[in-house]
Amino acid sequence: MHTQVFTYQQEFELESGEILPEFQLEYQTAGKINEDGSNIIWACHALTGNADVMDWWSGLFGDNKIFNPDEHFIICANVLGSCYGSTGPLSVNPRTNKPYYHSFPSITIRDMVNALDLLRVDLGISKIHTLIGGSLGGQQALEWAVKHPTLAENLIIVASNAKHSPWGIAFNETQRIAINADPTWKEERDDAGINGLIAARSIAMLSYRNYETYETTQMDDDEDKVNNFRASSYQQYQGEKLTKRFNAYSYWTLSKAMDSHNLGRNRGGLKEALKLIKSYTQVIGVNTDVLFPVSEQRFIARYVENVTYEEINSTYGHDGFLVEFNKLAKAIDAFFKQKNRKKLIYDTGC
Question: Where this protein primarily resides, as one coarse class (predicted)?
Fold first, then answer.
């Protein structure tokens, strides 16, 4: 994929009323836009994801995949607040010439989408063939589809929701409590809260997976063991692994943004907001997801007008949307085939 940077050199007002004096979004593309601009696939990444969608969603994006650069123009941008080249807490505030750190303003999913839409306009994109996202990425895609109902011809939402739940907010707050408990979190330095981030990620893993996942993957064979359990080392490993590519500031910022997600805010409620979506929509749930349970995806499907719902079976819980490539690909392929069948029927008048 080809990496580029979009710079917006004007003041950007956030939903909170705070102002970013300017911002940049780092994004990646693959393939070429065809003559009529009908082959654009826009992917929205999850909380600790990045713009390299062909890496973290390699089962769906790449050569010979459903979304491939031979047929499609693929684009994915790092969101505001992240730490992969877009403006975030470690970026330099042009008004102070110092990193934002704790002074980085609160952002919402709508702020993220407003920034993405400015990138879209700058690229001259007026129509998206398929807008797709999972988890926090699904929240962005839904917000975008509500804000600009005719932008995306197709909308695919995986393991996400129309409003973040008290359960999900509680998980995020517990992680932020862990970060805040790190004595270094109050300091102004790039690695502030790093040990708290290890604990936060370990907590998060319990919501990304589930009881069955740990029974299957982290069970010890030694029945006489009384310490140094496999599950314990796994939790430590996952926490430490994240600190090599992420920082506590962005984790805090993006988890807060996830909490803010509510399609119905200032739109007359969730049901009315979902009815605004005009895209041909597929909603996919993972049957063992405890963080975004399938009741949330079924709710979306109930109120979007032109929609199909698919539920995949997985032992991986919420992480199923990043693991079950074959099942996701099969579901998405069926979605497009069903749409094409409907179009054929309408075109022939049968």
Answer: cytoplasm
318 is catalytic: yes
| pLDDT tens, position by position, 300-328 | 999 999 999 999 999 999 999 999 999 99
The residue annotated as part of the active site, out of 86, 135, 255, 314, is: 135
Residues 39 and 101 placed together within one structural domain of the fold: yes
Catalytic residue among 52, 261, 289, 314: 289
For this structure, is 86 an active site residue?
no
Distant-in-sequence, close-in-space partners of 307: CB < 8 Å, separation ≥ 6: 281, 282, 283, 300, 301
Number of neighbouring beta carbons within 10 Å of residue 277: 23
Report pLDDT digits (tens) over 242-270: 999 999 999 999 999 999 999 999 999 99
Residue 289 known to be catalytic: yes
Annotated binding site: 201, 319
The rounded distance, in Å, linking the Cα atoms of 144 and 345 is 29
- Same domain for 244 and 271, yes or no, is no
Q: Say if residue 107 is in the same domain as residue 175.
A: no
How many domains are there within the chain?
2
CB 67 within 8 A of CB 130: yes
